[in-house]
Structures are given as structure tokens and as C-alpha cells.
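Comment thread on ticket #2218

A.B. wrote:
> Attaching the input chain for the structure job we discussed in standup.
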Amino acid sequence: MVLVALLPELEEVQRWKLPSVGAHGIDFDHMPNRLYVACDGGALVELETLAGEVRGEWPLSGVPDATFFNPASGLVHVAIGNPGLVESINPRTGACSAGNLYVFSPAHHGILALVEV
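C.D. wrote:
> Ran it. Output below, let me know if you need it in another format.
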């Protein structure tokens, strides 16, 4: 569920139910009023932000760690810890692609590639 509250008072306004459990990562697309919620139940859910209506749902290959909407490309990127990849979903077409997850470590002067072996 997503709890919607007014700021700064944090007054409860609405509770939006999701078709998948464990809302984990959230990001906004402000132009068409969309909220993207990656859920531990294995789905990315698109909500319309004025009434909380579900507008789309896409399967994920694992439990999400983080969600990022890129306004320049229109893609939603979801980091999946196991098997260590980033799924990129185009909400307009439903197309999904996956790539390896890379962690940049300045302290180690290198990059850690999380790949399935």
C-alpha cells in the first residue's frame, strides 16, 4: 500500500492499495502524474497520482532494491539485488530489458560487476 499525506502536517489523505505486496522502491514521473512502485512481490506497478488508480503492472525477475525514473528516456530502472541486474521498463510500450549491475567504488579505485555465474 502507498500512504498519501499532506506536507508538512503529515495529515493522512489516502491509502492506495497495490496489486503486489511489499512496496519497496518508488519514483515519480511528474508530467503525466505517474508513480512507479517496485514491489517485493515481483512487480513494477504504475499508479496515477491524482486518484491512485493502477495504470500498469510489469513482472520483475526478483526482489527490487531501488527504483529510478529517467525523464529524459521515459524508462523506469529497477535494481534487482539477486541475480544482480537492472531491469529497464518502458511504460509506454511495456518493453523490458535487463543488464548487469555495476557498483563504482572510489575507495577501491574500481568497479564491482555483479553478474550471475
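A.B. wrote:
> Thanks. Noting for the ticket: The chain has one domain: 21-114.
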